[in-house]
Structures are given as structure tokens and as C-alpha cells.
């Protein structure tokens, strides 16, 4: 429990303002999933093109639009993303089934609290299994790269810092060679579970390929990214795989590229990813089971 609480320590972020949303709206408006802006009284006051397409009537309370309820979700036995985001003052996500024009659809509803008591919600569909990696259940590279690029573009629009982390399991080929690919798959799944428990609703986690994983931490500056990565590597070291004749332990190496608010205008996703990748290989060349950050090396 203590380990999980350390992993899930929140990085303080400012509440969204209408001005920030206005600035980011050209991007938000064309995202391939519904985005809505909800005021303090639960009224939908703004909706992107996909939300207009998915829902019959936009100019009504969010609970009416998505569920057909006459009162907020929490009064109907469901979680309320807007209410929880405002209560906790942080981005949260809940799984909801919404009534859309194409029928009931399952969404991960990500709510970001606003400074006026409302929230901006992103309704991310969860019914497309082709976007998932078959071994770990994480988002696969094809879908994950698109999501990462969208998140970075949104951070740039909002003027919010972010961090890119590349993580690679140490000596994974040796595990496959000595114990077989079925054991390697178990290691991948256990590692993915630890990583999935560590990130927040506003972050992105992708199986990038082989034994490599990509994370985007929204709002995370270098100090938080380093603390997060240290705690995550500690958690991975605690993984134990019980085999017939031995107990297998796991370690990982990571590289970090934290992009500050001042760097947003001249650092894109590709360059941040390249820097994180360089730091990953620097960590591996330095002996593995550690992380290195671009900021500490530059």
C-alpha cells in the first residue's frame, strides 16, 4: 500500500482556465473522440465536432446528454467525473457507458478541473481491442504514438510542461533465452501492471516494442519526473516471478526528457522522444538498473 501511494503521488497542476481552453480549442475541436466543457452547474457549454456527432443534444446538463438522467451521475449510482475532478483538484478518469447516436458505448471519461468550478471532459472509446497490445494489454505503439502526439500538442497549446520517459527491461533477451518466451511474457505483463498502477489518468503509457515502454507525464517537470522514475524502478525491482527451480527478479533502465514551459515552442514530440531514448541508452551503458535525464546531462 505504501509503495502504491508513493507511485501515485500527484504532481500539482494548475486548474484549467477558459483562456487556456480557448487557446487549445483548434486542436481539441478536431480530436477523434468527444470533448466537452462543463460549467459549475453541469451544463455542457462547449463541445467539439466528435461530441456533436456522438450525442443527440449538446445544450443540456452532461448527465442528461450522456446518460439521459435527470440528476447528476452520483445521484444515480454512478461516479461523477466532473464532481470528483473538482473535489480532488486533479485530473481523474472513470469508466462510463454513454448513450450515443450509434448506441451504448463504453468510454474512459477523463475530467480535468477548471478554475470556475467546471471541468473539461474527454470521452475516450474503449471498445477497439485492435489498439491494445496482445501481451500486456497496454496501448500498442500505433495507437499510442497518435495519443502521445495529441497529448504533447495539447500540452503545447495549454502551455503546460510534460516529461517523456523511455523504459527498457534489463537483460530481457537473456530471460527469453534461458526460460522461454512464455516466461518473458509473464515478466512483460507484471511490469506493465506495475507501470499502469503508477500513472495518472492524464498520463500515457504505451508498449513501444519488445521490452521497451513509453510514458508521457502531463504537467511533470524534471524534478517530479525524476522522483516518479526512481520510485517506478524501485517498484519494478520488487517484482518476483516464481519459477519451478528459482525466483526471477526484474530490473529496468530509463531515460527522461522533461520539457519545460519555456521549451514548448521549440521542442516537439520527436525531439523529446529522441532525447529520452538517448538517455535510456546512456543509462544502460552506465550499468543498467538506473535512469538518466537529459537535463542533468546537458
From TrEMBL:
Residues 160-296 form the GGDEF domain. It catalyses: 2 GTP = 3',3'-c-di-GMP + 2 diphosphate. PROSITE patterns: GGDEF. The lineage of its organism: Bacteria, Pseudomonadati, Pseudomonadota, Gammaproteobacteria, Thiotrichales. It is an enzyme of class 2 (transferase). This is diguanylate cyclase. Its EC number is 2.7.7.65. It holds the Pfam family GGDEF. PANTHER family: DIGUANYLATE CYCLASE DGCM-RELATED (PTHR45138:SF9), REGULATORY COMPONENTS OF SENSORY TRANSDUCTION SYSTEM (PTHR45138). SMART domains: GGDEF. SUPFAM superfamilies: Nucleotide cyclase (SSF55073).
Amino acid at each position: 500500500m505504501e509503495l502504491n501511494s508513493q507511485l501515485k503521488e500527484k504532481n500539482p497542476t494548475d486548474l484549467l482556465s477558459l483562456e487556456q481552453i480557448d487557446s487549445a480549442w483548434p486542436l481539441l475541436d478536431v480530436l477523434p473522440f468527444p470533448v466537452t466543457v462543463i460549467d459549475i452547474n453541469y451544463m455542457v457549454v462547449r463541445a467539439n465536432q466528435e461530441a456533436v456527432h456522438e450525442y443527440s443534444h449538446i445544450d443540456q446538463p452532461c448527465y442528461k446528454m450522456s446518460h439521459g438522467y435527470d440528476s447528476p451521475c452520483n445521484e444515480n449510482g454512478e461516479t461523477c467525473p466532473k464532481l470528483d475532478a473538482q473535489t480532488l483538484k486533479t485530473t481523474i478518469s472513470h469508466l462510463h457507458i454513454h448513450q450515443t447516436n450509434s448506441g451504448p458505448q463504453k468510454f474512459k471519461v477523463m475530467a480535468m478541473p477548471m478554475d470556475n468550478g467546471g471541468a473539461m471532459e474527454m470521452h475516450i472509446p474503449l471498445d477497439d481491442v485492435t489498439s491494445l497490445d496482445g501481451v500486456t494489454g497496454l496501448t500498442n505503439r500505433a495507437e499510442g504514438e497518435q495519443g502521445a502526439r495529441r497529448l504533447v500538442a495539447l500540452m503545447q497549446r495549454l502551455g503546460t510542461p510534460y516529461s517523456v520517459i523511455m523504459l527498457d527491461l534489463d537483460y530481457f533477451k537473456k530471460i527469453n533465452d534461458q526460460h522461454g518466451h512464455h516466461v518473458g511474457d509473464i515478466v512483460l505483463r507484471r511490469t506493465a501492471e506495475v507501470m499502469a498502477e503508477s500513472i495518472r489518468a492524464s498520463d500515457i503509457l504505451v508498449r513501444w516494442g519488445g521490452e521497451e515502454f513509453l510514458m508521457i507525464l502531463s504537467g511533470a517537470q524534471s524534478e517530479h519526473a525524476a522522483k516518479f522514475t526512481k520510485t517506478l524502478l524501485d517498484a519494478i525491482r520488487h517484482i518476483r516471478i516464481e519459477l519451478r527451480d528459482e525466483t526471477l527478479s526484474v530490473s529496468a533502465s530509463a531515460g527522461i526528457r522533461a520539457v519545460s514551459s519555456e521549451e514548448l515552442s521549440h521542442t516537439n514530440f520527436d525531439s523529446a522522444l529522441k532525447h529520452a531514448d538517448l538517455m535510456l541508452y546512456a543509462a544502460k551503458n552506465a550499468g543498467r538498473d538506473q535512469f538518466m535525464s537529459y537535463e542533468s546531462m546537458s
